[in-house]
Hints:
alpha/beta
Amino acid sequence: MKTGDSKQTTPFKNLETPPLAYRALVVNKEKFIQVLDEINNQAELSLFKNRIIALKGIMSFPKSDREGLLNIDPNGDTVSLRRDVLISELNQILEARTLERAKYYLERLEKGVQKVKTSKINDINLLRWKEYDEIITDSLWVLDRRDTSGVHLAWYWGNFIPQIPHQMMLRYTKKGEWVLDTFVGSGTTLIECRRLGRNGIGIELNPDVAERAKKLINKENNKFNVITEIFVEDSRTVNTKEILNKLGIRQFQLLIMHPPYHNIIKFSKDPKDLSMAKNVDEFLKMFGEAVDNITPLLANGRYFALVIGDKYSKGEWVPLGFYCMNEVLKRGYLLKSIIVKNFEETRGKRNQKDLWRYRALVGGFYIFKHEYIMLFKKR
Ligand SMILES: C[S@@+](CC[C@H](N)C(=O)[O-])C[C@H]1O[C@@H](n2cnc3c(N)ncnc32)[C@H](O)[C@@H]1O
């Protein structure tokens, strides 16, 4: 949830096409494999390395290509490789001290060119995992910019940054799978669904917010022809079977929940709104009801990302995040990670910042600068 206005601009790269997102080399696959095989047949390390140096020369200066490695026949089989990663792999081969080791690296490179190996839950080619360096794998996320590319706008007070659903979808879904966001707000998740080729369903209590979100989502180019739809419903009571019947699917492959952080922001006056809960206990009860109602929709073995922050009330830090985590764990989910994410920078609020710093010094507390992405797996 953001803490103030921001107008950052740097687009977040599409990680699903890493070779295109960086300087890519499109090589003639058959020829490339043939050259790698020839090198692998060398019986001496020095000869082996000489051929690697020659290959590196071609990849660094494509104009020097006399072998036809980069001469692409339009009907031929090609493969796109990230140049920096390829060069670093060739360097690794050159650094090998034994022929055995050099061959090991070469064969690994060859495998990455020939084959695709993915897990059951995403499209990341594990044989070329080095090309996905923008996929975050650390539990501390310090993101200084909001992705404002595409139709993303930061109009909704209490939205999350697009990088959250973006990262979750790349790690935990394959193209064409189904994502459910039960507190969809301004539709950030569904916009990312369109950009990454996932079908996305949102549930939102507030009809005005849902209407605005729908309009915005429809402005995003639907180049993968996916379904994005919002149901104006209460996540705790929505008839989940009807949703599945309407969509003609059996289950979802990723669940995202970004509920209100209790009453930090009051989203409406509707008593069904979680931000209207009278106290923390009631909020947790309502949150638990939503988890109970929605859990059957998630396929076994798939992921549930809960985005939540803590709150401060009457001189006391209220660990809403951990309370909500416990509600989920009570329902039998497996905890996979707790990610701590910074709030984006607020601008033009210098006076307020000073005031909060003064209050913190007087009151003996720390100012919130983080929220959580808690990751669960359905057993
Ligand atoms: C923190 S916001 C989600 C923001 C969203 N991630 C975005 O990027 O815009 C929480 C949303 O939950 C909605 N909400 C609150 N209670 C709800 C309920 N019982 N069922 C469905 N939506 C609810 C609120 O109207 C609000 O839009």
